[in-house]
């Protein structure tokens, strides 16, 4: 099977995006791991499949797979790249696009300046919704790992996130601690682990160890989760600039019960074909 794909990136979080409307595509986890492999395949953090919508009021459905082959429900940078893809490929001429995802419907707006704004949905805090095996909701949770106390916020942006506040973002133990927490039994579906340094009330620095992909240059849902956690802790205003290794996102959240809005770039890098 020969598949046509587009290589894309949002702040260096990179994607292989495949039109599964105009080509017949069925991929198993082994094939996804092969495509995502940076030495033997194309290389990407996530693979996105663009499909026909399942609900009447949606324009498309898109599915998200991590580099390890696992299918997941939410991807912030992926949502912006998906919007850029359907516009660039002339699959739609709408500037406001409704898309079905496994985390519910998202609305994406293509702005005049080329950036994309995504309504990322309402964050969930109840442990069962994250999911997190804790008896009740708390502002911060504590766990002991190899004798060290680790304190984190936890919430769902349609996918699970733990956010740890750090003093020094450069030396934060992203790989070591991120890997351990990602697969900790407290998180039955694993977790994305963000390390956040609060710079001032409107800006943070963030590095994310992503579930199924290790540390990436940016994580859009992680940026939303970090901003929400900081706002919940009373440390941040309602509009936050999140600086990731690959660039910055603007995150806006009016508080509990409201959607989170994420604005940032999405770029097509090249197109190609791969034989599976
Ligand atoms: N890079 C993404 C998140 C991709 C999914 C995540 N690794 C998960 O398993 O939930 C983003 O930009 O949000």
From TrEMBL:
InterPro entries given in the database record: DAP_epimerase_AS (IPR018510), DAP_epimerase_DapF (IPR001653)
Gene Ontology BP annotations: lysine biosynthetic process via diaminopimelate
Keyword Cytoplasm in annotation: yes
Residues binding substrate, per UniProt: 13, 46, 66, 76-77, 159, 192, 210-211, 220-221
Origin: domain of life: Bacteria
GO molecular function: diaminopimelate epimerase activity
EC number, as in UniProt: 5.1.1.7
GO CC aspect terms: cytosol
Active site, UniProt feature: 75 (proton donor), 75, 219 (proton acceptor)
Keyword Secreted annotated: no
SUPFAM superfamilies: Diaminopimelate epimerase-like
Assembly description: Homodimer.
Entry's family note: Belongs to the diaminopimelate epimerase family.
Role noted for this protein: Catalyzes the stereoinversion of LL-2,6-diaminopimelate (L,L-DAP) to meso-diaminopimelate (meso-DAP), a precursor of L-lysine and an essential component of the bacterial peptidoglycan.
Protein name per Swiss-Prot or TrEMBL: Diaminopimelate epimerase
Species assigned in the record: Methylomonas koyamae
Highest classification ranks of the organism: Bacteria, Pseudomonadati, Pseudomonadota, Gammaproteobacteria, Methylococcales
